[in-house]
Every structure is written in C-alpha cells, then in structure tokens.
Design goal:
Helix content: 40-55%
Structural class: alpha/beta
Strand content: 15-25%
Bound molecules: zinc ion
Number of helices: 10
CATH topology: TIM Barrel
CATH class: Alpha Beta
Distance between the termini: 11 Å
Largest sheet: 8 strands, parallel
Number of strands: 8
CATH architecture: Alpha-Beta Barrel
Radius of gyration: 17 Å
Length: 260
C-alpha cells in the first residue's frame, strides 16, 4: 500500500478521465492520495474531489507562483475557514520559487510566512515548495520554529535536506529521482532516513521513467517507490510501509478519518 503524498487532481489534464486515473492508482496499490491546492479559487473543486472519493485528502494554500494575487492578512482567515472542511489535512503548497520568480520575492516571502504562522496556530503540517531559495526558506522556517511539514518534490542538495531534517521536516521525493541526470539527488535519497521520507508524483507533471514526457498520474508513485527501494537496498514493501506510516504521522488529521 502506497500514498501519493502530492498530486493535482483538479488540473485540466485530468478533466476527462479522473475516475479512470484513480482506479488505475488503486490497481497499482496507491490507496491514498493528497491532492494539493495552489490557488484559493480552486479549493472548492478540490474539496468536491475528496467528498467523492473516500481515500483522497486535500490541502489549502497558495503556490509561490501565485502569491502576488493574494492580500494579507485576509489570507490567514481564508485558510482558517477552509481547514474546517474535514478532508483538508494540510496547508500549502506554499514556499519560495526563485527559479521562476513568477511573483516578486517579497510577495512570496509574505505569503510563505502567512502559511507558516497559520500552520503553528492550527497545528497543521505545511507542504513546502522550495526552489533556488535555500537560505530564505530556512530563515522563514527559523521564524516559525516547530513547524510541521515537508519539503515536497525535493531536488535540492544533501546539505539543504539536512537543514530541513534538523528542523523536523519530512522530505518527499518525486519521479525526478528516476531521471538519468539526477545522480546527486539519488545520493540524497540514500541519505534521508527512512522514517522521514515520503513519495509523490506531483502529477500531472514530472512523470518518472519509464513514462517520462507523458502525463503523470498517481499510479506512477510505484516507480518512485521502486527507485527509493533500489537506492536504499530495501524491498518495495518496506518502502511502502514506512512511507505510508510517515505520511499518516505527518498528516495526522488524515489518519483520524482514513478508511483502512
Ligand atoms: Zn510544488
Ligand atoms: Zn505541486
């Protein structure tokens, strides 16, 4: 049994065949999925997906790309309002993306801080997207100590992973770890302790080998977990069991409502 800890099931790529996609995921042993919010305008669509499928949870939050479109402190009250829904189990994805810089750095930092502050107040985990922004990510986290959360779709250095782990964060790996060019990242997979590791697809993006270039879907979590198992010299079952346990330890609101 596996969990896809990060996918985007409301994106247009899935509009014609979402039920089939979910069925294929279940057939591959991916029993649970967390579909992640990137804009508040899409939260109702996400909540409705979770209402129609018992093993799918969602988050609420604003992607760093879109942080310029939100106003503060209204954002905090909007987040608080949406987490009242029983299947909203986390905040995010939020964070800093200085690779694309689709929003000004200052707007990204403000928005990230709002999520971190709400995470502490609500005692909910935060799904963190961080790219080319290691130092600022860590300084935000250090302002909000005891943040529970995950660096999702991790593609950073071993040192950055350590900085996250030292602050109690989990590290989630995606299909990027299967790419030929990702030798350094595979070393990071070996380094991250098994009890701090999650797996995800980030579907519909970043399909793992052997499906690279195609639309990604939650069923492909299997290829990510297989690569983790190979790198760590473990069985697939061992990785599945540990990463599922980690998921429900971190997203404990999901643990309370999951249908075993
Ligand atoms: Zn992301
Ligand atoms: Zn995402």
């Amino acid at each position: 049994m596996l969990v896809d800890s990060h996918c985007h099931l409301n994106f247009p790529e899935f509009k014609d065949d979402l039920d089939e996609v979910i069925k294929r995921a279940h057939a591959n042993g991916i029993k649970y999925m967390l579909t992640v919010n990137t804009r508040l305008s899409e939260i109702l669509a996400l909540q409705s997906i979770t209402e129609n499928h018992e093993n799918i949870f969602c988050s609420v939050g604003v992607h760093p790309h879109d942080s310029k479109d939100y106003h503060y402190p209204e954002l905090i009250s909007q987040l608080k309002n949406h987490v009242k829904h029983p299947k909203v189990v986390a905040l995010g994805e939020t964070g800093l993306d200085y690779f694309y810089n689709n929003s000004e750095k200052e707007a990204q930092i403000d928005c990230f801080n709002m999520h971190l502050s709400a995470g502490i107040e609500l005692d909910l985990p935060v799904i963190i997207h961080t790219r080319d922004a290691d130092d600022d990510t860590i300084s935000c986290l250090d302002k909000y100590q005891n943040t529970k959360g995950v660096f999702h779709c991790f593609s950073g250095s071993r040192d950055f992973a350590k900085q996250g782990l030292d602050r109690g964060l989990y590290i989630s790996f995606s299909g990027i770890i299967t790419f030929k060019t990702a030798a350094d990242l595979r070393e990071v997979v070996k380094y991250v302790p098994l009890d701090k590791l999650l797996v995800e697809t980030d579907s519909p993006f970043l399909a793992p080998i052997p499906n690279r270039g195609k639309r990604n879907e939650p069923g492909f979590t299997l290829f990510v977990a297989k690569m983790v198992a190979e790198l760590k010299g473990l069985s697939l079952e061992g990785v599945a069991e540990a990463s599922t346990e980690n998921f429900f330890r971190l997203f404990n609101k999901a643990d309370l409502i999951k249908n075993v």
